Amino acid sequence: EAGVVQSPRYKIIEKKQPVAFWCNPISGHNTLYWYRQNLGQGPELLIRYENEEAVDDSQLPKDRFSAERLKGVDSTLKIQPAELGDSAVYLCASSVGWSRNTGELFFGEGSRLTVL
Amino acid sequence: SQKIEQNSEALNIQEGKTATLTCNYTNYSPAYLQWYRQDPGRGPVFLLLIRENEKEKRKERLKVTFDTTLKQSLFHITASQPADSATYLCALVNTGNQFYFGTGTSLTVIP
Description:
The complex is a heterodimer of chains A (116) and B (111).
Chain A: E1 5-7, E2 10-13, E3 19-24, E4 31-37, E5 44-50, E6 53-56, E7 65-68, E8 75-79, E9 88-95, E10 106-107, E11 111-115
Parallel strand pairs in A: 2-11
Antiparallel strand pairs in A: 1-3, 3-8, 4-5, 4-9, 5-6, 7-8, 9-10, 9-11
Chain B: E1 3-6, E2 11-14, E3 19-26, E4 32-38, E5 45-51, E6 56-59, E7 62-67, E8 72-77, E9 86-93, E10 99-101, E11 105-110
Parallel strand pairs in B: 2-11
Antiparallel strand pairs in B: 1-3, 3-8, 4-5, 4-9, 6-7, 7-8, 9-10, 9-11
């Protein structure tokens, strides 16, 4: 099966510019996550969707970050305006939940953002 | 405060030896604990799951233990190979399906 697809893989922008990341999860996966991973750190949750509904967005900096998951499939994560501290890898993951007995997350390759 | 700590230093071991990685946590009550492997420039890949009522889980050369009293999980790779070199992440999962990742341990297997 096709994996989680993210784009772009790399993005370099100047501070105060907007940026958007796109994620296409594995077909049939109802749960979608956006994580941010700083260098040498583990992924940190930004937002989790169950179908179209954002069920956990407590860690999303809502003053500059926004996300949407239209029709419960693809998702976009936007930052506007970007700050230097936003430089990180943005990972998208999807899950079919616990019906497969492992609850494993399937991650995309990530989008590496550099803010100058 | 909540913390998930993995080996603070990178781990270098000789090929053929057993690598042991630790995951310690405080102020969490996980229902499950998962281990992932992450290669440079790639997303994490799931390896193993262990439940809170399980003491040990094995999969090929991998073994995971989970001690909820000590609040610790150990991840073992036996007969290690250079191809096992990667960063390994533990993830605590609660009953609300929230995942909390550790900082990761970088493992290098020296031929």
